[in-house]
Amino acid sequence: MNHKQMLKVFAVPVSAAFIMGIGHQVVLADETEQPIDATETVDTTTEQSTTMDQSPIQQQDVNASATVAPQQTSNVWIGQQGYASLEEAVKNSNDGDTITLGEGRFTLYNSPNIQSYTKGKSLTFIGQGIDKTYWGIGATVPDPSKFGTEYNGDYSFDGAKTVTFKDMTLQSKAKIDYLGFIRIDDTIVEDCKINGKTFYWGYKTAIFKNTTFDDTDTDYAIWTYSSPIMTFDGCTFHGAGKYINVYTDYSTGKENRTVNINNCTFITQKHNKSALNINDSNMGNYKYYVNFTGHNVTEGIQPHTLTCSRLFGFSNNKNNSGRLVVKMDGVPIWQDAKMVSHSIDTANDKYTDGYKDDAFDYTYGEWVKQEDGSFKRHVKRVCQYCGYAEEYDEIKAAPVKPTEDSKSQETPASKAPTTVNTMSKVTPNKVNAVKATTNDVDTSVQTNIGLSILGVFAGIAGILGYRKKNK
Ligand SMILES: [Zn+2]
Question: What is the pLDDT at residue 152?
Fold first, then answer.
């Protein structure tokens, strides 16, 4: 995200919330901010608090809300008690209640004074499944005059403790920044689908379990914006190249922030960003702590040229200011603005992706026989993803001394090393570009192949000898 030319102060209508001092004005606009379309119809008065026909991706659906059938039978329950609407159920709920939703579309957005019934409560909402129960977050048609602020957000749980959503699709208007639920302490989203981009989840913690983030067009699925601790467990992201934006201008530089990624999958047809796009430049004396655990999978994402990872990266170098610690299965892999090492094995994964994929261009020196009979050669390899170069010596053990029984089988080939070298991944064109200073590449390759062939002979001879001995 490039803020350089995006710093804007928005004129925010003086709402009651703002006067009361609970409003929070956001002054940074995202790069994806849409130009204000004067022809866009903004009519939030048609929002209904219960079974509105809401499809936030399609603005014209707002007007369709008038066609919703009246609640003839209960579609919302607390225990066995049915209610005429979600709003009625919430008004009658106690702290800790579970509210069950039937099929249909629900929202509490703009429900008059609903905050007074949710404040201080922990509530759980359980739907009938992601293709049956839909919950609209915030304005179906965001007001362009409030772009860049939180005021298109959803205040229906302002001051609530823990709010849990299960088995439903949560919908937010895509492409508009600063949407979500304003000022819930903790949020839990489990077995759900989330459509559109959201910024506001739990202001202490936000947990997403087995949840799919979808339909985000060209934009991010989510910002870690409001949540000091955000956890994604078993989640899947389908997107057009942007997933999690690890960034905030809210509460900037006042606390450490943690993002946990466990067993998640990031899928795209179009590479754009890493799974986590990080900007730690405004964290002051605090840091981001990003923890990858388990098996995290990406499809269609290119490795970041600096981090050499598909899982995390930066939009530009300025966003990598050293206020980030990344761990993989508990092992530090990135800190002080650089990788801890290019080759790290963790309990479930490897860092970097270059190391993981063995995506190196190799340059080999000649095998040199050592005093103890072993062979040594110098190897240089350069990562194709990030350009990281390293050099090391490779040793092959001395050939095993033939036993008495196998002496009759001995051939000249058996004097060659018995270890067949499998590191034959050489791309001559790229090797030449690597500036191999000490060795002639072509000679070393030929030597390598020759020794490998000798090694195969030696292996055959060894097998024959072994067979004879064991007859
Ligand atoms: Zn690399």
Answer: 74
- Is residue 69 classed exposed, middle or buried when 0-12, 13-18 and 19+ CB atoms within 10 A define those classes? exposed
Distance 123 CA to ligand 1 centre (A): 46
- pLDDT of 237 reads 94
Answer yes or no: do 367 and 353 share one domain.
no
Q: How many domains does the chain have?
A: 3
Cα(449) to ligand 1 centroid in Å equals 27
How far is the centre of ligand 1, averaged over its atoms, from the C-alpha of 250 (Å)?
33
Residue 189 lies in a domain: no
Cα 58 off chain centre by: 27
Q: pLDDT at position 179, please?
A: 80
In a domain, 69, yes or no: yes
Residue 217 pLDDT more than 80? no
pTM: 0.71
Distance 302 CA to ligand 1 centre (A): 12
Q: Of 1, 81, 65, give the one whose Cα is nearest residue 33.
A: 1
Distance from residue 360's CA to the centre of ligand 1 (Å): 8
Q: How far is the CA of 275 from the centre of ligand 1 (A)?
A: 17
Residues 3 and 105 reside in one and the same domain: yes
What domain range is 381 assigned to?
360-469
Note the pLDDT of residue 378: 97
Judgement on whether residues 328 and 386 belong to the same structural domain of the protein: no
Tokens 């225990």 sit at which residue? 79
Same domain, 373 and 289: no
Lowest mean pLDDT of 33-37, 104-108, 230-234, name the range.
33-37
Average pLDDT for 283-295 = 96
Query: Are both 407 and 339 inside the same structural domain?
Result: no
137: left (phi over 0), alpha (psi -120 to 50) or beta: beta
Ligand 1 centroid from CA 307, angstroms: 7
